[in-house]
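Morning!

This is the sequence you dropped in the shared folder:
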Amino acid sequence: MKILKYSRYGSLFLLYLLFSCESNLETQSCESSRDVLSYSTKEIKIETKNHQYFFSIDFVYESAEELLYYGYNKATSVIEIIDLSSKSHKKSIVIQKEGEHQILNLTDFYVHDTDSIFIHTGFLKKLYLVNSKGEVINKWTIDNDLPDGTSSDKGYFLAAYPNVGVRFLYLPSSRSILFHCEYLFFENPYDKEFYKKPILVEYSLEEKIFKNLQGNCPSEYTEGQQNPYDKKFPFVLTQKGDIYLGFTKSNYIHQYKAKQETQICAKSRYTEDNFTFLPSNAKSQQYQKDYSLKAHYQGLFYDKHKNFIYRLVKHKQVEKNDKGEDNKYFNAAFSIMVLDKQGNVMGETEPFPANQYDFSNIYPTSKGILISKQNTSNDIEDYLEFDFITILF
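The structure's back. Tokens below.
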């Protein structure tokens, strides 16, 4: 069965420091890493049997006892749970569409533990906490004004684009949620002011208020009016609370550590020195072609087991394949860059084969980096198939 991922493009990700944070940004050349890393893979297959696996959103949860894959089937409104160790279906959680435990418009979810799942609803401004039965045990209506005064009434919404790495995160130390905040400019949605607003915001679950706003956008995004589809900025949070912010069309990563902002050169061997942006009036068809054929950065992922940051790089490809058919997004090859806990680039892997993986998300685990082998260009009918990737140093 194939896992369908519905990519949502056009996410914005700027950061603005509400508190007086120091900046350590310098204009300098950014050269690609010359260290080529090899890798090994270990395949696992899981029979689907009577279960329907058409997942639009997924998540991987690992404890000392379990390694579980969660997949949300939008058509059936069910989260299926797969035990990756025993290679078996564990259980199903029905997300109810009516009644006492109703949840509408599931946009993303975060598994805190097997009996505590946060569910985010995007435009509906609702956050839910459900148990392993799908019962709502807590909920929040998040319609506060932002700390900078931006109104919740058509001024912003808390976005999530799970298939491009832009997801909300739970911060257990402060019992708060870190959200991606997207702004709405109805008169001119392409205005470069879009890139100057604060966008990563923390919401306290106990106080029910917004807290910190932080970050900046590279100069590439603030010069001129760019196409809205280029606003896709994934982020990760380390165990120490450091934030790493990446950009689809920038060779730099921004690190926010103890209110200190540092710009890190993390250029792939497969990207341009200077990215080109589509004009603000480009049509969606132009963007889809540009996005599918050109190289860019796909996402950032934190490995708590090794304390590494992974930057996934989607490679460029030709317009037509050997059969004369249009190449789709997942026909491309990709590679993974590795940064250590100081933000130093340790190297970049050899290319992974084209038309084989769903590289919209990867999940670092104690057994390796989990990646699905199902994608819209590679149909697998009778089982779920994954690889565990081990990067060799």
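Headline: Residues 1-23 have pLDDT under 50 and may be disordered.

More detail when I'm at my desk.
O.
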